Amino acid sequence: MSIISARAAAIAVFVALGTAPAMAGEEVLMRQAAPFDACPQMVEAMLDGLGADRNHVRQVADTGAHYSVKLVSSAANLVFLCNAVTEDITIMRTTPGELVTAAR
């Protein structure tokens, strides 16, 4: 298992086990340093670790400075946001009704 895969799997377990019932709006579950070049692979590994159905995964942005992926669920949506400037990845949970506000 590569370092990226191991790190992403650990994050996926944290996200899966460390979440409480969804609240209105958005909630930052975690923020962690991550090299921007490796971010898409880390997000893919996290989604695999969560057992995400690929029919529910949407790419939100890939601007060169930001990379964002959304996992859509009936209970809550997870948004994975990578930032090239700060070299970190942020995982947020949003309730479906607040997704438009949270995506701004």
Task: Please tag this protein with its features.
alpha+beta, 3 helices, 5 strands, signal, five-stranded antiparallel β-sheet, disordered C terminus, globular, Double Stranded RNA Binding Domain
Give your account of this protein's structure.
The chain is an alpha+beta fold and 104 residues long. It has a single domain (3-102), classed as Double Stranded RNA Binding Domain (2-Layer Sandwich). The chain contains 3 helices and 5 strands; from the N terminus they run αβαββββα. Strands 1-5-4-3-2 form a 5-stranded antiparallel β-sheet, with helices on one face. A hairpin with a 3-residue loop joins strand 2 and strand 3. The N and C termini lie far apart (35 Å).
Can you tell me the residue ranges where pLDDT is under 50 for at least 5 consecutive residues? 16-23, 98-104
Helix count, per DSSP? 3
**Most strands sheet:** 5 strands, antiparallel
Q: In CATH terms, what is the architecture?
A: 2-Layer Sandwich
Based on CA atoms alone, the radius of gyration comes out at 13 Å
Name the helicity range.
25-40%
**Largest sheet strand order:** 1-5-4-3-2
Shape: globular
Mean pLDDT: 73
Topology diagram in text:
Layout: H1 3-17, E1 26-33, H2 39-50, E2 57-62, E3 66-71, E4 77-83, E5 88-94, H3 99-102
Antiparallel strand pairs: 1-5, 2-3, 3-4, 4-5
Helix pairs in contact: 1-2
Offer a concise description of the structure.
This protein is an alpha+beta fold and 104 residues long.
